[in-house]
Structure formats: C-alpha cells, structure tokens
Design goal:
Elements: E1 7-8, H1 11-20, E2 24-30, E3 33-39, E4 42-46, E5 49-56, H2 61-68, E6 71-84, E7 92-108, H3 111-125, H4 137-141, E8 144-158
Antiparallel strand pairs: 1-8, 2-3, 2-6, 4-5, 5-8, 6-7, 7-8
C-alpha cells in the first residue's frame, strides 16, 4: 500500500470496518474484463480467516462466472464525510474506511451450512436472531448461498480530526 500510514492491519479492526459497510462489490472473471456486482453480504471469522457470504437466485450470470472461475475480488467502503479543505472544487476530499481483497467462492449445498450462511448475512443487517424454522422452505428452494473464503485482504482508513 503506497500510503502505509492509512493501512489497517489488525484483523479485528478490518472486520469492524467491513461490518460498518452496507454493501460490497464482488468482482468475477469474465472474458474481456472483470464483471462487478454490488451485493449484500455477511462476514465472519473462521479459523483465523475472513469468510464472506452472499445469496442469489438459482441461476444467472454470477453463478455462470463462478462455475468458470471461482477466484473473486471484493471491495467495501464507507464514506465518513465529504468536506472542503481548500478552494473548491479541488479542495474537496473525504474521510473514509475501506477493505478489499480476494478469495475463492463456492456454492454451499449442505442445508445446515446454507442456513448458517444466511444467518451470518442477516446478522450484518439486523440484531434479530433467526431460528432455522423461520427460514421459509419455499424461499430456501430458490436461493443459492455462496461462501467466499478470503485469501488476502487489506484495510485502509483516513479520518482527519484537525479539519472541521
């Protein structure tokens, strides 16, 4: 990272940044260039590594690309504020937090692991707790759960306290 003073290296700090992000963009390999999709996600630590979950329909471009190549990239960020620290428009800047990385995606097929992934996803957006029985069999039948085991990721933060 070029500006190392902005790098966040602590796993738990990076996780906190990630969990403050409302969505993420996932990048798939496609002939001719990357294919990027914004999506909702869940995240947890598993055996010292970051694991991401997302859900989608039973078919579609994401799954087609995933079956061709399961290596994916991701990025999530939150803009904390926008302000003018000089003469507009070049004086405008932002304070932000972000994480990005790459890993390997796999379709989750075991019923209990699918439910676990969906619960992790839901925990990102609500404090409500869901039992297995609360997930509709009809909805589960038309839902694909994807798990991304992250190989590497970085965190970055810029928060200026001295500028109003």
């Amino acid at each position: 990272m070029r500006k190392s003073e902005r790098e966040v290296v602590n796993f738990q700090e990076k996780m906190q940044i990630l969990m403050r992000c409302g969505s993420m963009t996932l990048a798939f390999h496609e002939e001719g260039g990357p294919y990027l999709v914004p999506l909702n996600f869940g995240a947890e630590e598993e055996n010292g590594s970051l694991v991401l979950y997302f859900h989608c329909a039973l078919e579609g471009k994401k799954l087609e690309l995933l079956k061709q190549n399961n290596e994916v990239g991701f990025c999530a960020y939150t803009m904390l504020r926008v302000f003018n620290k000089g003469v507009a428009p070049c004086g405008y800047t932002t304070d932000y937090e972000s994480v990005s990385g790459k890993g390997k995606a796999e379709i989750v097929t075991e019923p209990e692991k699918r439910l676990h992934g969906l619960k992790v996803l839901m925990a990102h957006y609500t404090d409500e707790t869901f039992s297995d029985e609360m997930f509709s069999a009809k909805a589960l039948a038309i839902t694909t759960v994807v798990k991304v085991t992250v190989d590497e990721w970085t965190g970055k933060r810029l928060v200026r306290k001295d500028i109003p």
